[in-house]
Amino acid sequence: MISLLIAIPLLLAFISIIWRSLSKPLFFLASFTNIVILITSWFPNGVEIHAMGNWKPPFGINLVFDNASFYAALVVNAFFLLTSLLPGLVGNYGIPLMLLMAAANGFVLTGDLFNSFVFMEIITITAVTIASKKENFYNAFKYLILGGIAGSIYLLATIFAYASTGSLNMAHVSMAGISSSSLVAITTLYAIGLGVEAKLFPLNGWVSGVYGGNDLAPVILGTSVSFAALYMVGRLFGTVFHGNGAEVLYTLALITIVIGEVAALRQRNLLKTFAYSSVAQAGVVVAMLSKGTGTAMGLAYFHLTNDAVAKFVIFLVAGFLVYNYKNLNGVFKKHKVLGASFSIASFSLVGFPLFAGFQSKLRIIMEAFSMKDYLFPSVMLLATLIEVGYVVRWNVKLWFEEETQEKAETPVIASTLALILALVLITVFIKPDIFLGGAMKMGNALADTKDYIQGVLSVVKGGM
Fold first, then answer.
1. Hey, how many other C-beta atoms are within 10 angstroms of the C-beta on 180?
2. 279 neighbors 259 (Cβ within 8 angstroms)
3. What average pLDDT does the structure give for the chain?
4. With CB atoms 3.0 to 4.6 Å apart as the test, which of 69, 87, 234, 356 could cross-link to 428 if both were Cys?
């Protein structure tokens, strides 16, 4: 069944090539079907293996379904489903969105290093297509070049891992062990290879141009694709390499946080401001993932889930505003529902009380202190002060400055979705277990290398 998460969107994408007029409804059908499949497979609480061609691991390609890949796939497909409800936003990009969905699911579910490279390349190619919307060709090309270089480095790391262990199966590589000298090279190369999609400094130069270049790219790349990429950071550095390379990740993460927040503060473009904010939040997630414990990794994904919901709302609203108004002064007086949703999401991003971001940020700081790490909380508090600056500035501008233009027609579906997700952020503050429970299961599964190895190498279920 789990292989259908890849097969269904791939099949419907090819059908859409023949009947292009059906691409939008088929995109909705693919994302809705995937969510139904995941709901019927709710948290497996173990490791299920789906062997392609019935080749038993570590031979052949297999999909791994555990608490970690389940939660990641659920979040990834949920944002694809939300995007599919916005036909005006999707436009003529139903086919690349379905291909991107198939690749993101494959990236999350695969238990094979080389197969993860293949899916990452498909993600890059389809994401570049989406990034080129509204003739944003220069920034899409820059993203393509960086993604191509990162993919080559990721492949090189995979070759070294194979040379050191004689296997491409993640569980087998984890069990076989790699010499310390080779491990340093391999983990460094994987950090660079994942750094583009994970938005780590200095490989995140593409983000502002791609996110700021059209209304679709930030909504899907800043949520589903980012979550898939950061899942793989946890899978490789937590499960496969037993925390090795964490120091490199931690250092890059702290630099990413500071640079991302400072760049966001300096921006005067709404989409680009929150594009740099996404960079900073990715740094927060990676810093926690580098700690390697189940609790720390679970809190990282709790924060990432909160951030993804907030960013979906922010980018949805910002995209509508930027491409309908030349001057954004006081624009929320015309669109009060969009304005309320944006304000809630941006306040959650900062971590104000009453919003989901407060729950995750407070828990992250407390966990860091319990691990006697005082540098990361200091950087995070500094970043929060900077966030307050640009979030308050934009809310004042959008709500209170003098209006200058006629009102554009309010998108009903977009307004409704934005408001619902904004209310979710308030609800998660009151009942954090809505996201926290699943995120902690994900973190514990990624940190439990022993169960992962035993599950993959001793259990075979399904086939294709």
1. 8
2. yes
3. 88
4. 356
Give the C-alpha distances (Å, rounded to integers) separating 332 from 99, 136, 174, 391, 407: 35, 27, 52, 15, 10
pLDDT score for 238: 87
C-alpha–C-alpha distance, residues 159 and 186, integer Å: 9
The crossing angle, in degrees rounded to 10, of helices 180-195 and 137-165 is 160
165 touches 172 (CB < 8 A) = yes
Residue 298 has pLDDT above 70, yes or no: yes
For the entire predicted model, the pTM comes to 0.90
Record the tokens describing residue 285, joined without a space. Answer: 């997630």
Cα dist. 327→211, 313, 362 in Å? 19, 20, 36
**Mean predicted confidence (pLDDT) in 354-383:** 92
| Token output for 228 | 């898939």
Angle between helical axes of 270-289 and 294-322 (0-180°, round to 10): 170
Q: Over the stretch 134-177, which tens digit does the pLDDT of each residue have? A: 888 898 898 898 888 999 999 999 999 888 888 888 888 888 87
Side chain identity at 189, as an amino acid letter?
L
What residue segments make up the domains of the chain, in order of their start? 4-43+62-458
> Do the Cβ atoms of 24 and 94 come closer than 8 Å?
yes
